[in-house]
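# nightly structure sweep
# worker-07 picked up a monomer target from the shared queue
# config: single-sequence mode, recycle default, output format = structure tokens
# input follows
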Amino acid sequence: MTTTDRAKATAAADVVRRLRAKGHEAWLAGGSVRDGLLGRPPEDYDVATSATPETVRRLFERTVPVGMRFGVILVLDGPHRFEVATFRSDAAYVDGRRPSAVHFGTAEQDAERRDFTINALLADPFTGEIIDYVGGRDDLRAGVIRAIGDPHARIAEDRLRMLRAVRFAARLGFTIHPDTRAAIRAAAPTVLDMAAERIGDEIAKMLTEGSARRAFELLDDTGLLRVVLPEVAAMRGVAQSPDFHPEGDVWRHTLLLLQQLPAGAAETLAFGALFHDVAKPLCAGMHRGRRTFYGHCERGADVAAAVLQRLRRSRDTWERVAWLVKNHLRPVQAPAMRLATLKKMLAEDGFEELMRLCRLDALSASLDLQYVLFCEERRAAFAIQQLRPPRLLGGDDLMALGYARGPTIGRILHALEDAQLEGEVSTRAEAEAWVRTRFPPPA
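# output follows
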């Protein structure tokens, strides 16, 4: 455990101590208990208590009432934030997300209203005592994600639980209990009844927590994939030429990319890996006995942008992912490019991320990394000044040389930039002479 992790754990324990000092029951709850028992450093610490929200606000100096109606107060302690929730039981869920009312109750009632058994454990931060009302410890030992009580009822309360079951099973290397899996398959068509951004957030987490392949295999197995991402589900069975793709169809190829995504991968790279071949089902054809996918990069960029907008991802995200998808085959041509064209590509914003995607793509197919290595070596060989040299002449300079304002100015500047990148000119005087020679000014 790092120094930061220890400091956060100590601060969380202090929240529990202060609540107990005033006569209230208080425990660490949920994910931090689960992760601690699994030997994983907890990301967050939540506290469950018998104290009412009003009492919690009086006990701590800095609080934020993030969910007063549901008994949830955010307690701030220096850089640390802890959700402190009052023990409660929930009334009926009417919107597929939140209970229509809550009733403050006991620790056992609070555990029984949670989603999965492994997330309903309570722990004493001082003695290590574990309180388990729902069999969560047995499921941790067995490596099982199991809904508490009736899985159909748990899913009906909040449909996000279907995606969370998949994400937890993938991240922890667990299986989904057969009853819970059956309930997910039965309810899969209703997953779109919730806000799209909640779906998008879960998909992004699945892709960036280090177990993306397993998550998408489970999405497929539970029937969720064809509902949430039908564009990705369509990859299954789309055959590819075995000389370039000995691994198999587009779906298997994409899974191999996802398998290589590390925990903490950038969301843009992760979605780029998922969508890089998303338009192959739309562009599949045959030419002289070979399978072709003409235009799948350009069309895939449009599909990726549309899906990510549907999932309410940020503009920066969908624009970058669309760019990655559109350009993921362009570096293949790098060895044959003119020097100026190559330098421009190497200097583009996002090129390093594009190279990471290209490497994943190659390692999931033919294993031919020649063009990736070529681009990496050439980029390392060029200084930044060579890739993005300062402009030698501008539009005002050209007009001073006698050229009229208009589109000709742009054409000259573009050609001059290429000449500079090719090494034909390197000084202002050389640039002026080059322009006069290539583009004689009007008499």
